[in-house]
């Protein structure tokens, strides 16, 4: 022992250590041993292998604490990797004997957990070197798992996962037993057990996907049950499991991916980084198409655990968030080339989930669905897998979806349909361009694959039909809000990448969405800023604000157009929308390097060249003075006026000081002039009074901004 003090345990020193410090001494020795075994030669390990193995097995039979268990298993595995493997089976048998103990005392439980951890690490590290001894271990674990507490159950599942990972693609009947055991605990009430079960199933998918692809409906139901009441870690693991399995059905070399226009493209398994596997579908009579996958996912997103049962039970947020992660994993495995080629199909299917009454029954559900799709899934996919040119093509797809949605609302033909053919050519695959042309012209062949319906509601309609109409009403704003939010993210992403390049190049790249037929500005002004939904108007104003940040040359023309409409608008929605857009353009000028020019040729009233801030301030003052001329427009004009004044405050003290006397006069007229008038307003108590007082709170906020800016 003294000849190799760095490997063997010093029994004399260990005996002198106080009892309460012995676990720490063992931990330090194991950590040192783990490091030295990696640096030792085969001869050095062989010389002390038997004595070292005996010392380590003493620790296994006595049981060690959680920090030392993995170190103990790793040291045993390194001994047999570096030295001889003669005594490997004796070590495995000793660990199996520890597991067979029926006693449930804390001491025996500690020994059992230590043996489980060591077995898992050994099988994972040595794999098939362990021979067929794993069959006995799996038999013991599958019988014991139903009779133990949650902590031991969790360690058993982790050990089974390590066994599968170590053995790889070896064919044995034990894997079927492991699959059944892990599947039965995927909805366990203890989330740690649930997580371990999903990780075990994930290890099976890497080498034995036929367990899952033979019955996708059962796998989907199993995963949905696991998502219900789950935490973030469980959701991410289930997303990896389900996303890999679904992508595997599409990426196998012998299966064609069917797209919405009836074409079929044979996918290459190397596109998404998933290895090919023969006879993937198992007992399925026909290959799984993209329509089938989208139908499964949309049904799970819309109906959750009740997808196979009648009823209107609500879907938990955990399930919808988990299915959103599944979408991301599935589309990520398909690869960037596939996503660029089928961007229209992907966009229309994802956005169609917002047209179901199940996702928009309450404002909170609608907001959460928009956050899942427009705030997480689509922006993440675009940033990860789309180049700048591909993102601009996606923006054009979004504009076409908006136009189709508004055309359905107004029942008017879409202008410039023939000019949309060949859209997006120059990207890598152009099948999405052909799809877009067929979609826009209303071709019957473009009504499949979850994204082919004329109104962009494909895919979710079939799965959500039991809950009502396949797509919500044309006036439902959630679809438009999500489209506009994604459009804002696309413009922001492209502008951020191109910030270091020439502005002219950025203008040329974004020019396709500004020119006819997919004119972004016309679509926003004609259809979105006048929408009856405040959310749509705010989202459209955000798009214009971000467009002006990306292309500073567009800021002044957009401001001119907003001010021209506001000076003659006769609709409350139009006044609200265009004031939001103008306020965003003015306040957003601080984010750009050029800002707002101090003078320009065109003035709203036709006078000489005057300052931009003076025009906006004068327009706000006119709106406030004309508020009482029409009772129907009083609130809209008042809100628009104060909103524009607040936007002017964002320009800083230089722009505010010249107008301070007029601003103080407007403040004075906004508040009640006497105590008697104040009491009269308080006694009214109707909705108009509450709106007025909420508006006064905003006015006070503007006053605080001005006071801090003009000090």
Automatic annotation (TrEMBL):
It comes from the Eukaryota. It comes from Taenia asiatica (Asian tapeworm). GO terms for cellular component: cytosol; endocytic vesicle; Golgi apparatus; membrane. Residues 432-441 have a biased composition (Polar residues). One of its GO terms (biological process) is intracellular protein localization. Residues 432-468 are annotated as: Disordered. Residues 445-468 have a biased composition (Gly residues). This is HEAT repeat-containing protein 5B.
């Amino acid at each position: 022992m003294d000849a190799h003090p760095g490997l063997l345990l010093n029994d004399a020193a260990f005996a002198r250590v106080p009892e309460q410090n012995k676990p720490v001494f063992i931990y330090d020795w194991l950590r040192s041993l783990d490091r030295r075994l990696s640096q030792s030669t085969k001869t050095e390990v062989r010389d002390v292998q038997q004595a070292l193995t005996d010392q380590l097995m003493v620790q296994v039979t006595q049981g060690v604490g959680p920090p030392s268990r993995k170190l103990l298993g790793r040291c045993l595995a390194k001994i047999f990797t570096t030295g001889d493997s003669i005594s490997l089976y004796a070590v495995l048998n000793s660990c199996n004997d520890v597991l067979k103990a029926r006693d449930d005392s804390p001491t025996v439980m500690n020994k059992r957990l230590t043996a489980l951890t060591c077995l898992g690490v050994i099988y994972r590290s040595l794999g098939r070197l362990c021979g067929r001894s794993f069959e006995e271990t799996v038999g013991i674990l599958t019988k014991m798992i139903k009779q133990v507490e949650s902590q031991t159950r969790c360690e058993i599942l982790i050990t089974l996962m390590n066994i599968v990972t170590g053995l790889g693609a070896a064919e044995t009947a034990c894997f079927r037993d492991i699959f059944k055991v892990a599947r039965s605990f995927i909805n366990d009430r203890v989330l740690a057990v649930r997580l371990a079960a999903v990780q075990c199933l994930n290890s099976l998918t890497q080498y034995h996907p036929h367990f899952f692809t033979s019955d996708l409906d059962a796998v989907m139901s199993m995963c949905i049950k696991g998502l219900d009441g789950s935490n973030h870690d469980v959701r991410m693991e289930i997303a990896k499991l389900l996303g890999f399995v679904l992508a595997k059905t599409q990426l196998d070399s012998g299966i064609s991916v069917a797209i919405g226009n009836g074409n079929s493209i044979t996918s290459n398994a190397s596109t998404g980084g998933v290895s090919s596997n023969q006879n993937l579908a198992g007992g399925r009579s026909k290959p799984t198409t993209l329509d089938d996958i989208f139908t499964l996912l949309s049904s799970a997103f819309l109906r959750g655990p009740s997808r196979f049962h009648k009823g209107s039970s609500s879907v938990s947020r955990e399930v919808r968030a988990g299915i959103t992660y599944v979408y991301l994993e599935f589309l990520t495995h398909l690869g960037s080339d596939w996503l660029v080629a089928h961007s229209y199909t992907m966009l229309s299917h994802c956005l169609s989930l917002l047209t179901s009454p199940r996702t928009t029954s309450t404002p909170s559900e609608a907001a959460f669905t928009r956050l899942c799709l427009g705030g997480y899934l689509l922006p993440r996919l675009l940033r990860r897998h789309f180049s700048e040119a591909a993102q601009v093509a996606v923006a054009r797809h979004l504009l076409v979806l908006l136009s189709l949605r508004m055309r359905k609302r107004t029942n008017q033909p879409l202008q410039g349909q023939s000019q949309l053919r060949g859209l997006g050519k120059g990207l890598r695959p152009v099948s999405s361009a052909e799809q877009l042309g067929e979609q826009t012209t209303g071709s019957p062949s473009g009504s499949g694959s979850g994204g082919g319906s004329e109104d962009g509601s494909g895919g979710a309609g079939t799965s959500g039909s039991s809950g009502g109409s396949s797509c919500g009403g044309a006036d439902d704003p959630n679809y438009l809000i999500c489209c506009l939010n994604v459009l804002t993210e696309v413009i922001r992403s492209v502008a951020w990448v191109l910030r270091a390049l020439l502005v002219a190049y950025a203008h040329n790249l974004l020019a396709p969405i500004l020119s006819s037929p997919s004119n972004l500005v016309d679509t926003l002004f004609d259809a979105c800023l006048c929408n009856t939904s405040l959310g749509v108007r705010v989202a459209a104003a955000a798009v214009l604000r971000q467009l002006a940040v990306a292309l500073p040359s567009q800021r002044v023309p957009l401001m001119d157009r907003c001010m021209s409409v506001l000076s003659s608008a006769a609709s409350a929605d139009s006044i609200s929308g265009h004031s939001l857009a103008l306020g965003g353009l003015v306040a957003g000028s601080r984010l750009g390097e050029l800002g707002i020019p101090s003078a320009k040729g065109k003035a709203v009233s036709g006078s000489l060249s005057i300052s931009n801030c003076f025009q906006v301030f004068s327009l706000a003052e006119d709106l406030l003075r004309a508020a009482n001329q029409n009772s129907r427009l009083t609130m809209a004009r008042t809100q628009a006026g104060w909103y524009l004044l607040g936007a002017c405050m964002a320009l800083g003290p230089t722009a505010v000081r010249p107008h301070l006397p007029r601003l103080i006069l407007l403040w004075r007229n906004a508040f009640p002039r006497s105590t008697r008038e104040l009491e009269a307003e308080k006694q009214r108590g109707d909705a108009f009074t509450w709106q007025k007082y909420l508006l006064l709170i905003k006015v006070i906020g503007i006053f605080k901004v001005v006071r801090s800016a003009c000090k």
